[in-house]
## 1
Amino acid sequence: MKRYLCNVLLAGCSLFTLATFAAKNAGWMAPVVKDTTAMPPLTWKEHWFEHAQVMRRVFSNSSVTVYYDKETPESITWPDTLLTKVWNYTTKTYGAFGKDNRLFVLLHTGKYGGGHPSTYFDGSHDYRNVIDVGHEGDWVSNTGWNLDAAVHEVGHIVEGAAKGVHGSPAFPIWKDSKWMEIYQYDVYRALGWDAEAQRWFDTQMKNTDNFPRPGTQWFKNWFYPVYHQYGGAKVLNNFFTILAANFPRNGNGYTRDMNWGEFIHFWSGAAGVNLKPQATIAFGWPASWEEEFLQAQKEFPGVKY
């Protein structure tokens, strides 16, 4: 098992799981999917990484079950309502995540200082859709880092298990938090959380990264223009739909990562228009990408635009 941890600043939550998002090992066996539709237990003993807490169930409905460690007071109730709304919107937009289709939220106070996700494909977390987040401070506030950290991890469940397929072939390209930036903006906007959406938008429009080249502005020059011009949540969902229908897989698991040409090809399919000009603005266009792009068009003719 590989382990990566979302840090406190949400600058490097590089995911973990058993061959999940980087999907480096082509030909790995497709994961087992188990039925977890029974009523969630009153307690849940963690058994991953350094986590060994007995978590207590503090809330449960048909969509979300929330567990706290002993340091997190039950008087904090905002995750119940807010994360139910987030998960219900997410499953409405991207489809179900397993037969149970429930989100398990595990929150820690005064430890870990970051979070990680798991999906219903992963035995490591008992085949549940999980966000497990630790806070060096407290969970009293329902905005800022507290909200962003939780929703961020939900977005990783989407990229790692959307459309009933395990893995994220695009993860080595967008790495951590680039897909999450547009996912979170869409969630806040769709739920009518205008102040949160504006706060998030203003922050992401200023962000720069050093990949694929120094000074890249993923949100400003790629994800937001694609989102804004080609259907909002529809184009985000289209990407995963087209990916599941066309990209190499072994049963319910992807077998390899995408290259840059394939990445632009599949997003073009999602948008219904050739996105090479937008990609050139956002990332540049090396000669190797042109070769990959043309090859992707030949190899995946079902992706049309």
## 2
Amino acid sequence: MTKKRVLTGVTTTGIPHLGNYVGAIRPAIRAAQDDNVESFLFLADYHGIIKCHDPAMIHESTQAVAATWLSCGLDPERTTFYRQSDIPEIMELNWILTCITAKGLMNRAHAYKAAVQDNLNNGQEDQDHQIEMGLYSYPILMTADILMFKANEVPVGRDQIQHVEMARDIAGRFNHRFKEIFTLPEVKIDEQVELLVGLDGRKMSKSYGNTIPLWENDKKTQKSVNKIITNLKEPGEPKQPDESPLFEIYKAFATPSETAEFTHMLAEGLAWGEAKKLLAAKINAELAEPRERYAELTANPAKIEEILQAGAAKARKEARVLLDQAREAVGIRALG
């Protein structure tokens, strides 16, 4: 039986928070534990420099993201775990794909359209004012990440679905124009977990300043949870799940029966303060062991580097084969 390939990655632009864990890291690691799955997991550091121009942050984040995945249960012996920048074949494939990608497809990318709209809203005559090519064309680099390893499924948050669809479009165009060498990927969404909301009810994001850190101690986690917005209902007053982001975050860490019980407790008048204690306890219980492993790994960065280099060596063997096929297909080959 052929194993299903699952690939995902995390950009190296900050220290991972709860939204990264729930939306990408946890489902990817769960998928990697399936005997019928062949998993490719990577640190997207070249994606990181699109928006982050702080070299120290890129470096620090690379270590933090690697330690996070390893601490959360990634087994580098049964998966291919690598740093994007250690696979130069990805960048060469990125250029080949750039040459066949329709500009109109990139014009429709959500991030680019949002940046253009910001310029228009601010009265800029040039709608592309200060928009760099990294932002504009990064869906092509993401496509190269995916196609390089013939991924069947890509676990992503709902805000990233468009990029996987673009990867399918680009792969299909190449296969039709040259030779059928690329696998068309499918989106993989954990239907039990929506995009995790932050303290203020918006998407949990560093740019909004509404995140809950992963690697703080129990007491600091409780302080972060205490900042979740609620209404002014007093203890004893019935409360509904949609009255605070607290419920959606709780649901991401609870079983269906626990979620149902929590809903019942709110309806019976559970105080917001008590609800926040229950949520913090839920988070801390799940992360207790990973936090110990994270502390050990970050104290020994050479160990992390050793694991990444081993993963890169494994990945490059396969990447070279596919890149040679792509080069041959477009006419880049030896003379004679």
## 3
Amino acid sequence: MPGDADQVSTAPEPADVPALDDVKGILHPDEQARHRSLARLPAGPDVGRFVEWYWSVRWDLRGRPPYYAEVLSYPCVNVTFERTTTRTGGFVSGVSTTKYIRELSEAGEAFGVRFRAGGFGAFTGLDVGSFRDAAVPLTEVLPAAEGLTERVLAVPSDQQRRTIIEDFFAGHQTADDPNYRLVLHIVEAMERDQELTRVDQVTERFDVPIRTLQRIFRRYVGAGPKWVLRRYRLQDGADLLARGHIEDLAALAAHLGYFDQAHFSREFAAEVGMAPLEYAKNSIRSRNEVTSRVLPTGNYPRS
């Protein structure tokens, strides 16, 4: 395999679990936090090669209208164990290439395994692109997981659930995969280096032909490299806007690699459902509504 594959360690370091105030990818984060709880747990060393972390969401909206939670999902597969009024079971959710919307109604919970980008494809040997933008029953993808959902949902704590899942995954032996190591290395650079905004920059940096890059991204990630780059930069933009960084939208668009402010605004509105400035104002309003519950009137922090 060309490029930096041989320079990447065979076993990635366990990912740091982001603090709960790290809400990148979650749209309208302050508003959403009023309707559900969120917790995260680190992956253990036996599965950390493929799994990034675990997350759990719980809500109780009985007597209240449903809430529609919106997310600009990361380029990774999630395995979820859910118990709600609309569905209960285990599911494999492929990469969501459009805004993900989940109805939260009545009372429910979901416990999720967030795989590393490319991790689920390397773990299973499956072409992850085959279930992009879809949620498939877990046992259709992993027949050996028969009964796993029932065991996970039968215990009350997130720590117990993590133990059951890790015991299951740890028994799966998988050979080292240099293509997966290369995908991990490239995706990490895409996420962290905001100067990476074009696919040709990626192919040049990692010395990978464009067709090879497209092929391994479809197989392991489930979406093309151009989409992954744009998704990370849109997440960056939405996160900055939600935090009140709206002084210069033209400068923000340039920083994120867009041709101009109009290009950024069109793409942001198409993905998020509202213009950047409208999204920023909505986020600030939601944050102030939360703050007003704990601070006296007139003592709001500046955005």
## 4
Amino acid sequence: MRRGLGQGLRLGVAAGKVSLWRGSRWRAPAWTPLGEAAYAPDDAAYGDFAALGQALEQILPAGEYAGWPLSVVLDDGLTRLWQVDMPHGAARLADIEAAAALRFQSLYGDAPGLWRSSSAWDARAPFFCAVPRALLAQLTRVADARKLVLIFITPQFARHWNRWHGALKPGAWFGQLQENTLTLGVRHDGRLRAVRALPVPPGAGREWLAQTLAREALLQGVSAPALLQLCGAVPAAWLTPVKEFQCQVFPAPDGEGALSPAARLAHSGGVA
């Protein structure tokens, strides 16, 4: 298929389903669905993700998209996200990487060798993400076989953070509500201090949210936020102003709420 100027492929990878879309920066429509496929999900760390590879081959026919750029957004549940405090006296990159490996081991208990980690650097508190090497192997294998150009592979939280962190107001925390998980970006002194993925109970209301923010603030040793700025399908009850704090929701594209979880992943962070 011939590629128009500003067009590219975006793949959303959820647990059990993948969704492929064509994105266009300058031509309408901005998003065009190309296909979805289900697969049997592997263990997040120890599976070989062969079923995922077969699903990718199904929705990416050989020869059809040769030369196209491909961007991949992963469900946060398939990744590991964590923050690392700068080690005392650290002077080299190796010092920070060693601290990150120790922190990863203590948080998740997984063997670091099964995961590929990368970082978004902040000299005061580097932010790390890890993805199963087996998952990356399937993505790169199929991309190479279909002659696609991999632009990025990133978790959904990172896409939303990159899109919206510049719009956060002073003192506000960032939140992403996806299905039944609230991922909090805890901010302090204008920087990201921690990332916390929390299960949301059915019917959780304003009181639950207030208690959750207060508990996370206590755990991180910071003040609870007066404002939580969110993306996702936020319950209306969370938006009712109260004395303790307020919620604001970043705008989502029309019709996004009707999409499958994998399709919403593909839309994360906009077309760019």
